[in-house]
Specification:
The complex is a heterodimer of chains A (656) and B (75).
Chain A (H helix, E strand, L loop, with lengths): L1 H21 L3 H18 L20 H8 L7 H26 L10 H18 L9 H23 L17 H15 L5 H22 L1 H6 L5 H10 L9 H10 L2 H22 L3 H21 L17 E2 L4 H13 L10 E3 L9 E3 L1 H12 L5 H13 L12 E2 H11 L9 H18 L5 E2 L22 H13 L6 H18 L9 H18 L3 H23 L5 H13 L8 H9 L11 E7 L3 E6 L1 H17 L1
Antiparallel strand pairs in A: 2-3, 4-5, 6-7
Helix pairs in contact in A: 1-4, 3-7, 4-5, 4-7, 6-7, 7-8, 8-12, 10-11, 12-13, 14-25, 15-17, 15-25, 16-17, 17-19, 19-20, 19-21, 20-22, 21-22, 21-23, 23-24, 23-25, 24-25
Chain B lengths: L7 H14 L1 H7 L2 H10 L6 H20 E2 L6
Helix pairs in contact in B: 1-2, 1-4
The chains are: A mainly alpha (656), B mainly alpha (75).
């Protein structure tokens, strides 16, 4: 009987939900659309959104109101109206729960930006109930209960957050028995009993629903046990196994330890028996309360519980071969971080010239239809080499092109060579199949750089007039942007410091002295072209190398004070928490190069993980200012470069 | 709460846990000819007592394997 009633209710009121979703403004709609799929995947046996919460293996959050109205024989003046509002309220309550859980789950793709959707759901829930039970009705306990239940539920969420952080762990498994559907189901039951004037039945119904919600929670927690363990979450099954095997819950136990202990201690039947007992108890309550529809549904839930228990019970003989009525009891989940890293690496290697990252200009730079700088591809190759990825062939190609292009920043004869290009060339050279190749070309451009550093003491960004002014030069006057950038200078110095021997020691000492002096005076203000956190990472990397190579008395003596100054800037910049994946990645990279890994906030990596796309990439974020149409400047951004930076940051956190 | 032994129990649990999440490893520990090598890989001495405990648990593992699933999505 419950199936037919459930089907009728869904068919009658599902269009209400479809209308609700389609009326949302674009950004909320986009978030709600993901929620639809979440529901479809997690709570519908068919994988169809419209079948969510149907069947005996799902908690009947959308059916409870109708069943209770029937079973309690509630006389309503407009039953269809009550059904409609209660159905929508039930759905919104479920949606609120799912949204909160998504935000809290580091492996999900929901983040704090979903708070707006959550607030909207809360408002709509209130309005749906208020249609049926006007706020301020005399003698009505509903709104007081609504307020108290909502507050208690939110408090429980905070408690869960604290437990996730490992600050308030309880060894008692029953402490983890709060069902995610308990509060929504209670609110629906309280509304029904209020509408029907049978509030005396409310306590019994709520107790029955609490038990049922706890039973479903156990099943859900068994299913996601592997993932919960990977994230250090404690649930009823995990606490039960830990207790049986005398494994402490803090620090978070290794997933395989708990899963193995579950087998060795035969805990799974005990856990599922608890769920079955809760269902039995709920069924007994339903019978006592004369709830026919709910009772018949619970009979079927009982059958599934018994079957699940039978599937794992340690009886002799082979495992049961009959097709089970319910799906898998447990699922294995690939750990989020290694999976994300693998996806990112395969994205980066999916196009080996990294063409998308080239700083390409089609606005008519140098009067040309298309001009490009491959420099960002060099940064990506450097990151990949740093992680031990074999990109030797791609590096050979990059170096050969750079030499053929005379170390120019852009692939146009009017472009000057630049220190960033020479710097990345020097840093990549050791990874080439023939690291000593291109010796003559490199010596020529470095000789030129050496002369310029000798003349001014500073590392130039643009290496102009390397061979002296040409008499037949037809190049018009060109405004070169970004001169004086300390990050470019640092990039070049890092490159020179990776070259074996002392051939360029004088240039390094002079350029480093000049740069460190600027850094002490203006801090990260010495950076012109790059995001400040990226610049800080480069500066810290340089300081470490200068120390390591014991470069001259001048700069060496100043490294400590420069580092102190830059560390203060790093701390100040981290006070404003990074909000985007690239900013979060750069913050982590900067901390690590500063030797301050303890400053890396795990939430930064959560931000990175939650924004990864299914192809392994991240959306490109502004990285450097570059000329654009009509004599203006706009931000260069690249999906590939942003993805490489996110990859580097995640890989660093994986090492930690 | 009693303290957790970092010795035998811990190693056995790691072994059984790995057998749940790693199918290739699982296929080795159910194979009598490859079982000992799989144990040694995890630093477990394949003594007769350990093998007896493992083989006793394999029966339960088989029940569990039947209960496992990996979600596959397509839209």
């Amino acid at each position: 009987m419950w199936q037919e009633s459930q089907r009728r209710t869904h068919e009658a009121h599902w269009p209400e939900i479809e209308r609700f979703f389609s009326s949302l403004p674009p950004r909320l709609f986009r978030q709600a659309k993901l929620l639809e799929y979440d529901f479809a995947f997690r709570y519908a046996a068919t994988g169809q959104f419209r079948h969510a919460f149907m069947g005996a293996d799902q908690f009947p959050i959308l059916s409870l109101a109708g069943w209770l109205l029937d079973d309690l024989g509630v006389p309503t003046t407009d039953r269809a109206d009550a059904d409609r509002h209660l159905f929508l309220a039930s759905f919104l309550l479920a949606a609120r729960v799912q949204t909160i859980e998504g935000i809290l789950d580091p492996s999900s793709f929901s983040d704090e930006s979903h708070i707006g959707l959550l607030e909207f759901f809360s408002t709509c829930i209130f309005l749906e109930f208020a249609h049926l039970i006007p706020s301020g009705s005399s003698g009505s306990p509903f709104w007081e209960q609504y307020q108290a239940l909502t507050a208690r539920d939110l408090d429980r969420l905070l408690e869960r957050r604290e437990r996730q952080a490992g600050t308030d762990l309880d060894d008692e498994p029953d402490a983890y028995l709060n069902g995610r559907w308990a509060a929504p189901a209670r609110l629906v039951a309280l509304a029904v009993t209020e509408i029907g004037g049978v509030t005396t039945a409310a306590a019994g119904i709520c107790a029955m629903l609490d038990g049922l919600a706890a039973a479903f929670q156990i099943r859900d927690d068994v299913e996601t046990m592997h993932r919960d363990l990977q994230h250090g979450r404690v649930t009823y099954p995990i606490a039960t196994v830990a207790r049986a095997a005398h494994i402490p819950l803090h620090p978070p136990p290794e997933p395989n330890q708990i899963l193995g202990a579950m087998v060795a201690t035969r805990s799974l039947p005990t856990i599922l028996a608890k769920a079955e007992a809760l269902v039995l108890d709920s069924a007994r309550c339903a019978r006592e309360l004369d709830l026919m529809s709910v009772g018949s549904y619970l009979d079927d839930v009982r059958a599934i519980s018994a079957e699940q228990l039978n599937r794992v019970s340690p009886v002799d003989g082979p495992p049961p071969s009959a097709t089970p009525r319910s799906g898998p009891l447990m699922r294995t989940f690939e750990p989020t971080l290694p999976k994300a890293l693998d996806m990112a690496q395969r994205f980066l290697l999916s196009e080996r010239t990294f063409r998308e990252s080239w700083e390409t200009h089609r606005e008519g730079m140098f009067g040309s239809g298309e001009v490009a700088s491959r420099y960002p591809a060099g940064l990506i190759l450097e990151i990949l080499h740093g992680r031990g990825v074999d990109v030797t062939r791609e590096t050979d190609d990059f170096l050969a092109f750079t030499v053929a292009n005379d170390f120019r920043y852009y692939d146009h004869p009017w472009s000057d060579a630049d220190s960033d290009t020479v710097g990345v060339f020097l840093r990549l050279r050791r990874y080439a199949s023939s690291p000593t190749e291109h010796e003559d070309a490199l010596a020529r451009v470095l000789g030129c750089l050496e002369r310029q550093i000798g003349a001014t003491g500073a590392v130039p960004v643009w290496i102009a007039d390397c061979d002296g002014p040409s008499t037949d030069d037809v190049r018009p006057p060109i405004v070169a942007l970004g001169e004086g950038c300390g990050t470019v200078a640092a990039h070049l110095l890092i490159g020179l410091l990776t070259v074996a021997g002392d051939r360029y020691r004088g240039a390094v000492e002079s350029g480093a002295s000049h740069l460190l002096d600027r850094l002490r005076h203006v801090g990260v203000g010495a950076n012109v072209n790059y995001p400040p956190l990226f610049a800080l990472a480069v500066f810290f990397r340089l300081l470490a190398l200068l120390e390591q190579r014991n470069v001259g008395r001048g700069p060496a003596a100043d490294i400590g004070t420069t580092r102190t100054r830059l560390l203060a800037e790093l701390h100040a910049r981290l006070e404003a928490a990074p909000v985007t994946p690239q900013a979060s990645a750069l913050a982590a990279i900067a901390c690590r190069h500063a030797g301050q890994s303890d400053l890396v906030d795990p939430r930064w990596m959560t931000t990175v993980l939650k924004q990864q796309r299914s192809d392994g990439s991240w959306i490109g974020e502004p990285f450097a200012a570059a000329p654009n149409r009509g004599g203006w400047v706009s931000w260069y951004s690249s999906t590939t470069l942003t993805s490489a930076l996110c990859y580097e940051a995640l890989a660093g956190s994986s090492d930690a | 709460m009693s303290t957790y032994s970092q010795g035998g129990d811990s190693k056995l649990h790691e072994l059984l846990g790995k057998a749940i999440t790693d199918q290739e490893f699982a296929s080795r520990i159910v194979d009598p000819e490859r079982q000992a090598a799989a144990l040694e890989e995890l630093g477990i001495d394949p003594t007769p007592e350990v093998l007896e405990e493992l083989n006793h648990s394999i029966h339960h593992l088989r029940h569990l394997w039947e209960s496992f699933g990996t979600p596959k999505l397509a839209s």
